[in-house]
């Protein structure tokens, strides 16, 4: 192999590596990112220490829907919660019953214990451009009922898609 061919091969490798790094940075910055679940507020859907991939672009194209597990950006830390109430809806919780605009909504993602520990709340109307969120572990969750308040659409930075760590728990988060 001649000196010129070796140099050309090295340049091709360097270009390929630079392109791969740029693509990875683009995907991480604008499309997907990871977040670590901190605490038990989303148990049993998500457990403390699990790493999830979240989709950052989905809400540029669409709006959050009831049931979505979202990443909420706050100054000190991000939160992982489930969207319960949409803009303009009236939310009321009577024990294990969730009422939205006066109609009961089933919460199949909750355990019987979580349903029993939900308590009472509302009725309260969700402001325009805001969402009402709760953790699946209702007894201990800091959420729209008790500390986070209504979540403005701009503070929702993505939708959780996959559990990627620990490896034996790879799954969809919906």
From TrEMBL:
Protein name according to UniProt: Signal peptidase I
Annotated SUPFAM superfamilies: LexA/Signal peptidase
PROSITE patterns (alphabetical): SPASE_I_1, SPASE_I_2, SPASE_I_3
Name its GO BP terms in alphabetical order: signal peptide processing
Entry keyword Flavoprotein:
no
Q: Which residues form the active site?
A: 41, 81
Gene name as annotated: lepB
The compartments listed are: Cell membrane; Membrane
Write out the entry's keywords from A to Z. Answer: Cell membrane, Hydrolase, Membrane, Protease, Transmembrane, Transmembrane helix
- Which stretches are transmembrane? 12-33
The EC class name is hydrolase
Which ranges carry the Peptidase S26 domain? 10-164
Where primarily located?
membrane
One Gene Ontology term, aspect cellular component: plasma membrane
Q: Which domain of life is it from?
A: Bacteria
- What membrane topology was assigned to this protein in its record? Single-pass type II membrane protein
User: Which EC number(s) are documented for this chain?
Assistant: 3.4.21.89
Catalytic activity, reaction form: Cleavage of hydrophobic, N-terminal signal or leader sequences from secreted and periplasmic proteins
Top-level taxonomy: Bacteria, Bacillati, Bacillota, Bacilli, Bacillales
The UniProt similarity line reads: Belongs to the peptidase S26 family.
Q: Which GO terms describe its molecular function?
A: serine-type endopeptidase activity; signal peptidase activity
């Amino acid at each position: 192999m001649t000196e010129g061919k070796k140099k050309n091969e090295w340049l091709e490798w360097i270009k390929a590596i630079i392109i791969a790094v740029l693509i990875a940075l683009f995907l991480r910055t604008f499309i997907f990112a990871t977040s670590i679940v901190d605490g038990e507020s989303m148990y049993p859907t998500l457990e403390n220490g699990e790493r999830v991939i979240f989709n950052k672009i989905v809400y540029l194209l669409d709006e959050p829907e009831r049931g979505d597990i979202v990443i909420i950006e706050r100054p000190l830390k991000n939160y992982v919660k489930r969207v319960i109430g949409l803009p303009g809806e009236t939310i009321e919780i009577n024990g294990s019953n969730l009422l939205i605009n006066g109609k009961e909504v089933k919460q199949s993602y909750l355990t019987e214990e979580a349903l029993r520990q939900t308590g009472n709340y509302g009725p309260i109307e969700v402001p325009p451009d805001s969402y009402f969120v709760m953790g699946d572990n209702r007894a201990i969750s800091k959420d729209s009922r008790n500390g986070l308040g209504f979540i403005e659409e701009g503070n929702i930075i993505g939708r959780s898609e996959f559990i990627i760590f620990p490896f034996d728990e790879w799954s969809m988060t919906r």
